[in-house]
């Protein structure tokens, strides 16, 4: 099992910047506004030869009530309990504050080893704060600049003895291949939707713990938070995302960053679960999100959340289905599952829908089967005449999966009507059991086999 390193500290000391530095890429949202991070976020981290799971946490607040900040503190405390080592970060430009002293006292009472990190020490900026930090009683402070990558060697020297030899990488690591589709790879599943539709509550129900912050406040989730877990022996990576509002209504920088993070999670997901609120109608923004998922070629499943609050369930479900069929005609058979994150009702059916949709998204059809099928389809409904000559459909082959993509070679691709393309796509979906996922049909001009021969004869 990978060693685990938690990054803690009061708000706005640069924890997320250090998290991104150790992760080797920008994952957590970073902004000058205090309190940006709310959920704890985990990813693979490295520091020299050290390999570990690095955990970003919310800024520590001295609160014990029912507020959002208090619930954030509980998440941070859980991260410390699960960690093998803790990096406590203070701001080298500000120096040691009373809140830093308060939480240093709390960390000394824990059983986890702590490295005191004085951040924002570009050049000599934090020299005095580093000297002052000895008073916190957490050992020798390490001066770093997470933003500029300074002090990483000193941080490695402080952290390596705490993690032990088990955290050291082997001499040669096998590089990951782009597009590696090995069967042991987890299925990446992203939850997206409007704010406050119950995404985080449903995610917590699926993984069986209060991993995501939840509450009555809209827009609690900001970062896209990923969690590795297993369901019925299959590995998955669940990504909970910030709520998406209409872009015209997004003005604040922080919300724009959160929206970009959600878009990125959607593009890299394999299956996207669009979460709707069962107590509201299928809104225009829901349809906009669904179309974006389809345009990206992702596999789409719809979860109707808060189903426990619906009285006339049959009428409500029929209303959602009717709206879906009329508004998303480009993809037939999208699976729609009523669920409740509060009670767990419908969760097994939702996961069945995810697996079925993922399999359809990976469907591969042999070329010989496609061309027998194409001949039968063109005989049943011949392509139209163009300038007195009938279009000839010569050859059909599948060029990729995820989503299923086919190339149709014909005499005049620019003259094939859209309705005939839809006829081909709908036939593929029906006859080869490819429901509920986007199908891409690319038209290509077939070469004239007699063209070169005629030139030679001349």
Structure description:
One of its GO terms (biological process) is ribosome biogenesis. GTPase that plays an essential role in the late steps of ribosome biogenesis. With 458 residues, the protein is α/β, with parallel strands linked by helices. It folds into 3 domains: 3-167, 3-Layer(aba) Sandwich (Rossmann fold); 187-361, Rossmann fold; 367-452, 2-Layer Sandwich (GMP Synthetase, Chain A, domain 3), CATH 3.30.300. The chain is 34% helix and 21% strand. It has 13 helices and 17 strands. The protein has helices at residues 15-23, 68-82, 98-108, 127-132, 152-163, 199-207, 253-268, 284-295, 313-327, 347-361, 367-380, 418-431, 451-457; strands at residues 3-8, 41-47, 50-56, 85-91, 114-119, 142-143, 187-192, 225-231, 234-240, 271-277, 299-305, 336-338, 385-386, 389-390, 393-400, 405-410, 440-445. The strands form 4 sheets. A 6-stranded mixed beta sheet has the order 2-3-1-4-5-6. The protein has a 6-stranded mixed beta sheet with strand order 8-9-7-10-11-12, sandwiched between helices. The protein is elongated, with a radius of gyration of 27 Å.
Identify the notable features of this structure and list them briefly.
458 residues; alpha/beta; Rossmann fold; GMP Synthetase, Chain A, domain 3; 17 strands; elongated
Q: Please state roughly what percent of the residues sit in beta strands, choosing from under 5%, 5-15%, 15-25%, 25-35%, 35-45% or over 45%.
A: 15-25%
CATH superfamily of the largest domain: P-loop containing nucleotide triphosphate hydrolases
Lateral strand order in the biggest sheet: 2-3-1-4-5-6
Give the number of helices. Answer: 13
The CATH architecture of the largest domain comes to 3-Layer(aba) Sandwich
Low-confidence stretches: 29-36, 171-180, 449-458
The SSE string, one letter per element, is EHEEHEHEHEHEHEEHEHEHEHHEEEEHEH
The name of the CATH topology of the largest domain is Rossmann fold
Helicity range: 25-40%
Shape, please? elongated
- What would you call the structural class? alpha/beta
State the end-to-end distance. 73 Å
Query: What's the pLDDT, averaged over the residues?
Result: 82
Largest sheet: 6 strands, mixed
CATH class of the largest domain: Alpha Beta
How many separate domains?
A: 3
Radius of gyration: 27 Å
Number of E-type strands: 17
């Amino acid at each position: 099992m990978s060693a685990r390193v938690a990054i803690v500290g009061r708000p706005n000391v640069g924890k997320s910047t250090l998290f991104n530095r150790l992760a080797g890429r920008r994952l957590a949202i970073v902004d000058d506004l205090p309190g940006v991070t709310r959920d704890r976020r985990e990813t693979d981290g490295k520091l020299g030869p050290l390999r570990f799971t690095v955990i970003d946490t919310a800024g520590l607040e001295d609160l014990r009530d029912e507020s959002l900040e208090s619930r954030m503190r509980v998440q941070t405390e859980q991260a410390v309990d699960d960690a093998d080592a803790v990096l406590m970060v203070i701001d080298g430009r500000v120096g040691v504050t009373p809140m830093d002293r308060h939480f240093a006292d709390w960390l000394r009472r824990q059983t986890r080893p702590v490295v005191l990190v004085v951040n924002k020490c570009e050049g000599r900026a934090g020299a005095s704060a580093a000297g002052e930090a000895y008073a916190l009683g957490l050992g020798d402070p390490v001066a770093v600049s997470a933003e500029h990558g300074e002090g990483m060697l000193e941080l490695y020297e402080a952290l390596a003895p705490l993690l032990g030899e088990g955290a050291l990488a082997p001499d040669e690591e096998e590089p990951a291949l782009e597009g590696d589709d090995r069967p042991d790879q987890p299925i990446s599943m992203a939850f997206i939707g409007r704010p406050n539709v119950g995404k985080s509550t449903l995610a917590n129900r699926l993984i069986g713990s209060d991993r995501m912050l939840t509450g009555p406040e809209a827009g609690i989730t900001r970062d896209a938070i990923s969690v590795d877990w297993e369901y019925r022996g299959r590995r998955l990576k669940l990504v909970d995302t910030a709520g998406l509002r209409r872009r015209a209504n997004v003005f604040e920088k922080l919300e724009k960053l959160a929206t970009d993070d959600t878009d990125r999670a959607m593009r890299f997901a394999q299956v996207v679960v669009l979460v709707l609120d069962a107590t509201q109608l299928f809104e225009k923004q829901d349809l906009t999100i669904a179309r974006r998922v389809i345009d990206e070629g992702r596999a789409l499943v719809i979860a109707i959340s808060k189903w426990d609050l619906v009285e006339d369930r049959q009428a409500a479900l029929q209303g959602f289905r009717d709206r879906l069929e009329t508004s998303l005609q480009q993809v037939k058979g999208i699976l729609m599952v009523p669920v409740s994150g509060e009670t767990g009702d419908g969760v097994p059916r939702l996961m069945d829908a995810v697996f079925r949709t993922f399999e359809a998204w990976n469907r591969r059809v042999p070329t010989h089967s496609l061309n027998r099928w194409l001949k039968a389809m063109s005989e049943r409904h011949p392509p139209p005449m163009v300038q007195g000559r009938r279009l000839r459909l010569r050859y059909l082959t599948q060029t990729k999966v995820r989503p299923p993509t086919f190339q149709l070679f014909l005499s005049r691709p620019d003259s094939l009507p859209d309705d005939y393309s839809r006829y081909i796509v709908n036939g593929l979906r029906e006859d080869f059991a490819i429901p509920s996922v986007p199908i891409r049909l690319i038209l290509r001009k077939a070469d004239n086999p007699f063209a070169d021969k005629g030139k030679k004869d001349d």
